[in-house]
Amino acid sequence: MAIPVILDTDIGTDVDDVWALAFLLRCPELDVQLITTCTGDTQHRAALVAKLLTVAGRDDVPVGIGLPLDPAPLGHPGWLADYDLKSYNGPIHRDGVGAICDTIMNSAEPVTVIGIGPLPNIAAALVREPRITQNSRFVGMHGSLRRGYLGAPKAMREYNVKQHALSCQAVFAAPWHKTITPLDTCGNIMLTGEHFAAVAQSTSPLAQAVIANHQEWFEVASSWPMLGDLLKAMDPTQQSSVLYDCVAVYLGFSQQGLGVETLNITVTDDGRTLIEDGGHSVDCATEWTDLDGFYQLLSARLA
To answer: Residue 213: CA atoms inside 13 Å, Cβ hemisphere, count?
Structure first.
């Protein structure tokens, strides 16, 4: 039986959320119950979700508009163009937080909540209906424990945590099962060579939409501070950007090929994730044992 899933995403800033949503829609192990958008222009993000779902032939999936906190740049508005969210055939929930609560509380099976952005929506859902932890678990792309971005040999403040650290603290403190991919296992994930080519050359409408967003994002984000120099050194016709969020989607149904440690994690007010006594128990994917196997699965499903 497929696992009921809610995806909470800040899609529309970094293009890895587009890749992750496409991957999610191609995973028969996961039954998508709801997709909510978090932070920044959540209406714009919801429209992007809705258009991608329509392209994928999945306009039955409900879309929830989350809390518009913590503004962030938009990385690929051109592909969205003049798409109107009102044209989406599926359910649109203006109260995305309420939709999270209702979806979990009304589910006959435990729901996996996959967070691939900052966590104010999920933290707000925990306040509004604390009982959701009794019928759900959390999987997230959050933190940095021993390695940082691009495999740097030191922990760093990771974006999804530091952007709204108080929300992350609340989610990690909640009494539910928690699993994360920190930067240790997702901070250097890129499709290259035959794996990238399989997606880029695919005739699937969804794969083509992913590549169109990928190409636009490289053009737009190359002018952003902190990213410009890195992206200018990469060839978007030959490789993806870093696909952090795809690992969280994978953890929604499998840990094969990953080394997972149960660690006590503290989230500091300034957005660091520390391993220390007194922290909250979290299953942390800290090592790959079969990274190529993951790349093969990811590229095959996206293509």
So the answer is: 31
CB 17 within 8 A of CB 8: no
Render pLDDT for 113-140 as a digit per residue (tens, 0 to 9): 999 999 999 999 999 999 999 999 999 9
Is pLDDT above 80 for 228? no
Provide the number of structural domains found in the chain.
Answer: 1
pLDDT of res. 51: 98
Sheet strand arrangement including 3-9: 92-93, 63-65, 30-37, 3-9, 111-115, 136-140, 178-180, 280-288, 258-267, 273-275
Q: Which CATH number do you get for residue 274?
A: 3.90.245.10
- From residue 73, alpha-carbon distances to 39, 44, 301 in Å are 11, 11, 29
Give the pLDDT score at 60. Answer: 97
Mean pLDDT value across the chain: 96
Alpha helices in the chain (DSSP H): 16-25, 42-55, 77-80, 96-105, 120-128, 159-162, 165-173, 183-186, 193-200, 205-221, 228-232, 244-251, 291-302
Domain that holds residue 18: 3-302
Q: Which pLDDT belongs to residue 71?
A: 87
How far, CA to CA in Å, does 56 sit from each of 59, 125, 126? 8, 28, 31
Q: Supply 195's token pair.
A: 């794996």
Candidates 67, 61, 298; CA nearest to 194 is 298
- Lookup result for tokens 């222009």: 41
Residue pair 113/8 in contact by the 8 Å Cβ criterion: yes
Q: What would the pLDDT profile of 29-78 be if each residue is shown by its tens digit?
A: 999 999 999 999 999 999 999 999 999 999 999 999 999 998 888 988 99
